[in-house]
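tool_call: predict_structure(chain=1)
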Amino acid sequence: MAISERWLEEIKVLDLTRYLAGPACTRLLTELGADVIKIEQPPYGDPNRSNRPRINKRAGTHIQQNRGKRSVCIDMNTDDGKKLILDLASHVDVVVENFSPGVLDRKGLGYGSLKRNNPKLIMASVSGFGQTGPLSSLPCFDLIAQGYAGIMHMTGEPDRPPMFVGIGMGDTNAGVHAFAAIGHALFHRERTGRGTHLDISMVDALFHMQDMPVHASSMTNGEYIPMRQGTEFQMLSPAGSFHGPEGWIVILCAEAQIANLYEAMGYPELANDERFKGNPARLENRAALTEIIEMWMSTYETDNAVLEKLQSHRVPCGPALAPQDALSHPHFLERGTVRTVNDPLAGEVQIPGFPFKSSDPLPDDDYVASALGEHNYEILNTLLGLSAERITDLGKIGVLYSKEH
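tool_result:
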């Protein structure tokens, strides 16, 4: 591969992350060509390695999150292990970690310690509540972050309890924010020569996704009360989830598209129905319009037939796809939104693709998930100059660890 295709060629990353939020960040750095050195704690390494499903002791989560990273397994609770981390940090451009705030400082591995020998170092710390603030020391998982950020309050039926989003949204969203911040920090370093410490909070990143609820509450002195909307988008009608012949179909029509919907259904006369003239009237008579739409849908045998009819009239619509349905969807496959990777132990595995495209070539996808400690010798010898004898001795006393899977 041409060097120019590896956008982050020669950028070295020390990856101190585990679980999901941190690996979601370093996974993206890897796929842009960075050399990511993943530090894992013995004897089991990143807990992702033990997630199910597994084939031949290879976890799908480990394949998805850690392909292409070089694994070094170091006990950072030992003095020798801490020294190795400090030495490695002096040879890299970026450190990414997602320990609870204060943990690395207590180990002598916080940003202040790492930058002494590497003032140009960029460090990204991903945590639930951030490195500062009254909540910073509290434990936090994805669901907790969704609760604090108002995501749960806005999800579900209005007369039912708040619901969490059914994916690791807080973790992965924070990882993407960290990825973006690191890119801009590298650009900033190019111009100033300075490193920096990036503080990425799951709650901050999720709260940043709020659109109307925050400013509307502020501007109306609390008169506007944000509330979860269930299956219906409260600002427009028709807009929401509708019963199709087989499953659920999503439609959202602004004023510019409503005539297209009536034409698609074969009911152009609805444009002159006083109940449906203008969005305010449609909102007031939402139930009646929903009944008409779903009755029309029921005359078809399949959801696809409904969608083809709507799409042929430029009606904004789509299926409520289950993730497994995307695995064979032609649009997802053609764009690489779903891709198939080959793992030497698990075989072919479908995973989400790289999330942005470019007119310039991106690195080839030829990554493989590493065995635990697979690169102990390679990294410590070539980067730090440790002898084979010293590396062997560190293994004998438990500072280094490795195993086949």
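agent: The longest strand covers residues 35-40. Proceeding to next step.
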